[in-house]
TrEMBL record:
The keyword Methyltransferase does not apply. GO terms for biological process: proteolysis. InterPro entries: Chloro_Bact_Ser_Proteases, PDZ, PDZ_sf, Peptidase_S1_PA, Peptidase_S1_PA_chymotrypsin. It holds the Pfam family Trypsin_2. It comes from Mucilaginibacter rubeus. One of its GO terms (molecular function) is peptidase activity. Keywords: Hydrolase, Protease. Belongs to the peptidase S1C family. Residues 400-455 form the PDZ domain. This is PDZ domain-containing protein. PANTHER family: PEPTIDASE S12, PROTEASE DO-LIKE 8, CHLOROPLASTIC. It comes from the Bacteria.
Length: 577
């Protein structure tokens, strides 16, 4: 057995023992009632999750998708689905996907929108075509809804493009705004339209309709709109005025007695107080510009590691936001230089070793529990640490999420076209990686990364494996001379629309996808606040915030991946991936 393996084996055995002790500590810090509201949220999610569906228009002749995705919720065993009118048309066919992967088709039925705004009441119904015993939710009552009442969203945000819904938590803030909608702080974005809003009893109280720029303003169609026009909506008709035939809205059951919910704020404050000093800011220079990003201190005290790490602190942060000569800024204003020990390109992590011990208590390595989050944890309260701001609370929305390189692939910024036997560059984008490397129109592309390129498809395949920030070699024929150019690939142009979902405070992270296994929560952190730790309300370390994906979603690298990265880095500092 080699010395390297023995050291690795010893570390793992030691940490396994410490993990057991940490789990015992976590049990002791729990107090009766601390998870009361959390348990209510989880119970409501279990009632509504299975019936919350993903949809898009579907061409049954071409077997192809015909529209953007949207959300809905099944409200009857026979498959009647409530959604928003602005995403549904009578008579059209829609693909329906349940969270368990079951798929079927539905037909658009009634839809009510009224000129000139075509906003109100924005109610629509669909019906599943196939016969079946479909999961469905219970409809609540608008008269039961109160200001500041907790509420839960289960819908499918477009930015994630997942086949399972995402959970968000909030409160009712307005029962009747200027447009006639309810409002909640359950944050929404495109794709969520038509999705359900539940109370703590798991009853449907609203359907998602729209948003304003503020993350706190999200429009909900009151459930009684559907109760009132239920019969009319079952007919295949596009209503441009309110239907004349209405259902009588009367209760045939007692008023909803909401479970008593303890305010979790004091537990958030307790966790924040315990670990606040583990979050620091890090400054560095990237492409000539100073960048600031958060980082998390981990303590290596009493861990048997190589001399370079003996009784030291290490800092974990977001790799794509760290230049080569970073400085850690402490709360006192003092700055400490750090060296980059390792980078993980896949998870966008970087490990820093300060030149001096920071004198702050870091997170002990025994807290890097390798527990795997699962669907039973959805709705759990989370606390995100921030260096210069108060903590940010959230709920766990999705687990085991994979996000392809949609906006973080290596972008060359050049177009090549076949001309005879040659593949020639026909366009070089200004300020692109191609221009910076000295590529020009008319150059013949011969190879990428030492692999021969014969056509446009070869070029696409050769570049597909790279991430923004990666460097490759491109071989060209420039006016009869064979040249090899070193090219540092960039991010593709960031698309920003006029939709309010693209204009929330702080905006999105530049590197926000290309991850293989992350969890998602609804923390409203800023891109430069990524790198901070995420805990549950008992103080259990769950992971590191790595990106603000969208208006609805912050994504985090789970503890098990953080553990693996740190173990590898302090065991072997020769390189990264």
């Amino acid at each position: 057995m080699t010395k390297r393996f023995l050291l690795f084996f010893f570390l793992q055995c030691l940490w396994n023992l410490q993990v057991t002790n940490a789990q015992n500590v976590d049990k002791r810090v729990q107090k009766p009632g601390v998870t009361q509201l959390q348990d209510n949220i989880k119970a409501a999610i279990k009632k509504g999750y299975a019936a919350s569906v993903l949809m898009w228009e579907y061409d049954t002749l071409q077997y192809s998708r015909m529209s953007a995705q949207f959300s809905g919720v099944v409200v009857s065993k026979g498959g009647e689905i409530l959604s928003a009118a602005h995403v549904v048309m009578p008579g059209k066919t829609y693909q329906v996907i349940f969270p368990d992967g079951k798929m079927c088709l539905a037909r658009g039925l009634g839809r009510i929108t009224i000129a000139p705004t075509f906003m109100l009441p924005d109610a629509a119904m669909l019906k599943i075509i196939q016969k079946g015993d479909w999961p469905f939710v219970e409809m609540g009552w608008y008269s039961d809804v109160k200001i500041n009442q907790p509420c839960i969203s289960i819908a499918y945000p477009e930015s994630m493009e997942q086949r399972k819904p995402d959970v968000r938590f909030g409160y009712i803030t307005n029962l009747n705004n200027r447009y006639g909608f309810m409002e909640s702080t359950c944050v929404m974005e495109p794709g969520d339209s038509g999705g359900p809003l539940f109370d703590l009893s798991g009853r449907l109280i609203g359907i998602h309709s729209g948003i304003e720029q503020s993350e706190d303003i999200n429009y909900e169609i009151p459930v009684d709109t559907y109760r009132k026009y239920y019969t009319a909506l079952t007919r295949l008709e596009n209503y441009t005025s309110l239907p004349l035939d209405t259902n009588v809205i009367s209760k045939n059951q007692p008023a909803n007695n909401f479970p008593i919910a303890e305010n979790p704020d004091k537990y958030f404050k307790s966790v924040n107080k315990r670990f606040k000093t583990t979050c620091v800011n890090i400054k560095s220079v990237i492409d000539g510009k100073e960048q600031t990003i958060a980082g998390t201190i981990f303590s290596l005290d009493n861990i048997n590691v190589k001399t370079a790490f003996k009784n030291s602190d290490i800092i974990l942060t977001k790799s794509s936001m760290i230049g080569e000569e970073p400085f850690i800024t402490l709360s006192s204003g003092k700055t400490v230089k750090a060296n980059i020990i390792r980078r993980d390109r896949i998870n966008d992590l970087a490990l820093l070793l300060p030149v001096l011990k920071l004198g702050k208590e870091g997170i002990k390595l025994r807290m890097l529990l390798a527990d795997t989050l699962n669907n039973n944890d959805l709705g759990s309260f989370l606390i995100s640490l921030r260096a210069d701001s108060p903590y940010c609370s959230s709920v766990l929305g999705s687990v085991g999420v994979s996000l392809p390189k949609k906006t973080s692939y290596g972008y060359l910024g050049a177009v090549a076209r076949q001309k005879g036997q040659a593949l020639l560059f026909t366009f070089i984008q200004p300020n692109s990686a191609a221009e910076a490397a000295g590529l020009t129109t008319g150059d013949e592309l011969l190879a990428i990364d030492d692999k021969t390129v014969n056509d446009e498809l070869d070029m696409f395949k050769a570049l597909q494996k790279f991430r923004a920030g990666d460097t490759t070699l491109i071989t060209i024929n420039h006016k009869g001379e064979k040249l090899i150019k070193k090219v540092a690939l960039k991010y593709p142009p960031q698309k920003i629309t006029n939709h309010p979902a693209d204009h929330f405070i702080g905006g999105k992270s530049i590197r926000k996808d290309g991850f293989g296994n992350v969890f998602v929560h609804d923390a409203r952190i800023k891109p430069w606040e990524c790198g901070g730790a995420v805990f549950d309300i008992t103080g259990k370390f769950l992971g590191i915030n790595i990106a603000r994906l969208s208006r609805t979603s912050t994504i985090a690298i789970p503890a098990v991946a953080v553990n693996q990265f740190i173990v590898t880095a302090i065991y072997d500092t020769k390189g990264g991936n």
